[in-house]
Amino acid sequence: xxxxxxxxxELDFSSCRRGDIPDMQKFQVHALHDGVVHxxxxxxxxxxxxxxxxxxxxxxxxxxxxxxGYTQDSHFSHGLQIVEDADxxxxxxxxxxxxxxxxxxxxxxxxxVRHSPCR
Length: 119
Hints:
The chain contains three helices and eight strands; from the N terminus they run βββββααβαββ. By secondary structure, it is an alpha+beta fold.
C-alpha cells in the first residue's frame, strides 16, 4: 500500500440520483514509501441497514485470507487502473512504452478520479 485509503463519496441507494456522484474529483495523497506505483485499486462497501451492521465489502483488508468463490470474484470485485508516469507520457509519442511511476516517501501526489456518466 503506497498511500492511505481515500474515501471518494458516500451515497444512499434508496434516495440518490446520478447527479449525486461527481463526474470528476481531485485528491492530494502522500506516498508512504519509496517505490513504484503500478496501479490504483478502488474498492467499495454497501450496508443493508442504517446502523451498518451487515456489510458487503471489496476492501482488501476485509477479504485478506478468506476463501473466495467465482461468484464473488466475478461480480463483486475491485476496480483496477494501471498507471504510468504521466509527465513522461506527455513528452513521448503513442508508440512509446509506458514508463514506471516512481515515487518517494512523503511525496505529494494528485489523484484524479473520473466517473463515467453511463454507469
